[in-house]
Amino acid sequence: MRGRTTRVGRVFHPGEDGYDAERTGFNLAVDHRPAYVVSAAGSEDIVRAVGQAVDRGLAVGVLATGHGASVAAGPDAVLITTRRMTDVTVDPGARTARVSAGARWEHVIEACAPHGLAPLSGSSPHVGAVGYTLGGGAGLLGRRYGFAADHVHGLDLVTADARPRTVTADTAPALFWALRGAGKGNFGVVTAMEIALFPIARLYGGGLYFPAEACADALHAWAAWTGSGDLPDEMASSVLLMTYPDVPWVPAPLRGRHVTHVRVAWSGPPAEAEPLLAPLRAVGHPLLDTISELPYREVGSIHHEPTEAAAAQDRGSLLTGLPPAAVDAVLAGAGPAARAPFVAELRHFGGAYARPPRVPNAVGHRSAAFSLYTGADPAAGAAADALHEAVRPWGTGGAFVNFLGVGDAEAARLSTAFAPEDYTRLTELKRTYDPENVFRVNHNIPPSGTPVP
User: Fold this and answer.
1) Which of 136, 279, 303, 308 has most Cβ atoms within 10 angstroms of its Cβ?
2) What is the tens place of the pLDDT at every residue in 85-95?
3) In what residue span(s) does the FAD-binding PCMH-type domain sit (predicted)?
């Protein structure tokens, strides 16, 4: 797994040109101000950075794209940025890809497309592939194939002793278990991963954008459709509720309007898609209908998520189901009458997500049927919190690591992402591989025996 590089990284100190740009990620709600930033060009830079941080008594944080916000690195920490490590190597015969630490999904998708292959990427190609996968990874092929973490073959890792390791099910089975689902910065710095690819060249997908007056009908129809148990695993879908700003970059039919955006992605034979979509199309006349056959390299057009940096208070809940009363709770909190100052998204889980992987990992709450995600300006976080409280009767009581936000830094909150016995095992592994909790600039798993504030 280990590659070689002759590139040399850079170090940025406060006040120097480039420091502010290097410490800033996609989510501007996280204001990193570390003692210094190491811009890594290869694994050797990361080995040196971790060793020097430990020698100086500094914590270590990692920043690739900064989509998965957690806690800010302060003056007692060094921040390692991996955004320049974007190499992707595809083995079409083995249907695998080696992905470097800073590669975005768009880099991986483009490298795979000429071979008719696809990774288990997220809904946004702009997101970092490694962090997404270490947090579980739930994308548009997940109901068919499972979590992205289920299909990792190996990981290159720099641990707290500044040693590079290749971690697989054979070389370090316990650590391999932990990294896949709970490895976002807690057990070391992942410098590369090897993942499985799948023979998906095209999808049938896109969005139905319904106006405010059709919101209730559309959301109830989608909940009944997904909750019926009749959908094949090849059908992925979600719904976004939001009020679009009245600005030129928004398509004219959506400007200034509350929209119910139903997104679908069918990875089976295209001819079989439209009969399955009939209950959604029966809702009424959408403002826009973008559903069509498209190459997988255009998968990002389905959710059409923003790519410009912004400050966001993210939060996620997992749901056991979405009965009519739960739909009404979502409508009351995020429907057009609520004038909600945030976006709300429901995703359909089930299918392969619920099935255990061939090689066990730390991903929790596989029985969840849906997720509820909210993204708000930090000043409007309380309004979004109220929606999560309203759906609590249908919640699993757990969280999904990739949907934890800047307000979820407490260990008690992170622990809900795992079964209790798995969380205990994770703290014990943390004590083995990082007893001083060097890697704590994250949603932190403390070493067992450590007092929790």
Assistant:
1) 136
2) 999 999 999 99
3) 30-200
